[in-house]
Amino acid sequence: MKKGLDAPLVPIIFTACGLVGMIPAWNSHQLYNFLFPVLMLVLAAIFVHTSYWGKYAIIQQTVAALKIPQNSQVLDLGTGHGAVLLAVAGKLQRPGKVVGIDLWKSADQSSNSLTATQRNIEAAGVSNVAEIKTADMTKLPFDDESFDYVFASLAIHNVKPRAQRELALREALRVLKPAGYLVIIDLEHVGEFKRYLNEQNCRQVSVKRAGFNGLWGWLPTRILVAEK
């Protein structure tokens, strides 16, 4: 599977700060002056680990824990290179289907494109149960109550401002069937998402931390699961 670096500017900044900071630290001949540049390099390494390996482990574990029926209809918001889409597709058989939507912005993930994700789908051999579209999660082109599961992995935090994030959640609930599940894996605004979903009378809204594999520098990934 072709992967991309999430928010590529962030680890670049961490690395640049670390390398530049090494110069005055070296010239000072004082060990404590190395603390900041070393910390920046460590944060960059953790970020890259999570982007290329950690988040995939989290997604696989989350999908496995849900025990998704083979005939489920699933929507993946902000699918990117298709990490969630491919994990779900491996659990489905027709008439089951997973649809991934994205605006394909490379600022959110390097080399992010519909073409690259379509190649990942074909390489995984799941074209019969997986489909991708260009669409905005705040204005979904799907009928009400179309999906058994809606996923959003590291996607909704990119929507700004808060009113637009709430619109994305409202759209997710609109296309979700009664007793369907909304699953959000994210590093920002998860408390905000939980409050909104509780206000919408969702059932069993739970949040848990994802551990080391979900660290983006110092920011932890959290996994929210809500039943409509």
Short note summarizing the structure:
With 228 residues, this protein is of the alpha/beta class. It contains six helices and nine strands; from the N terminus they run ααβαβαββαβαββββ.
Report on the structure:
By secondary structure, this protein is α/β, with parallel strands linked by helices. The chain has a single domain, classed as Rossmann fold (3-Layer(aba) Sandwich). It contains six helices and nine strands. It has helices spanning 9-28, 35-66, 83-89, 114-124, 162-175, 190-199; strands spanning 73-77, 97-102, 130-134, 147-153, 176-186, 203-209, 215-216, 219-220, 222-227. It has a seven-stranded mixed beta sheet with strand order 3-2-1-4-5-9-6, with helices on both faces. Helix 4 (114-124) links the parallel strand 2 (97-102) and strand 3. Helix 1 runs antiparallel to helix 2 (35-66). The chain is globular, with a radius of gyration of 19 Å. The two termini are 32 Å apart.
Order of helices and strands: HHEHEHEEHEHEEEE
Work out the helicity level.
Answer: 40-55%
Shape: globular
- Number of separate strands: 9
Say which CATH homologous superfamily is assigned. Vaccinia Virus protein VP39
Strand order of the largest sheet: 3-2-1-4-5-9-6
Transmembrane segments: 7-26, 32-52
Keywords: Membrane, Methyltransferase, Transferase, Transmembrane, Transmembrane helix
Domain Methyltransferase type: 75-184
Organism: Limosilactobacillus oris F0423
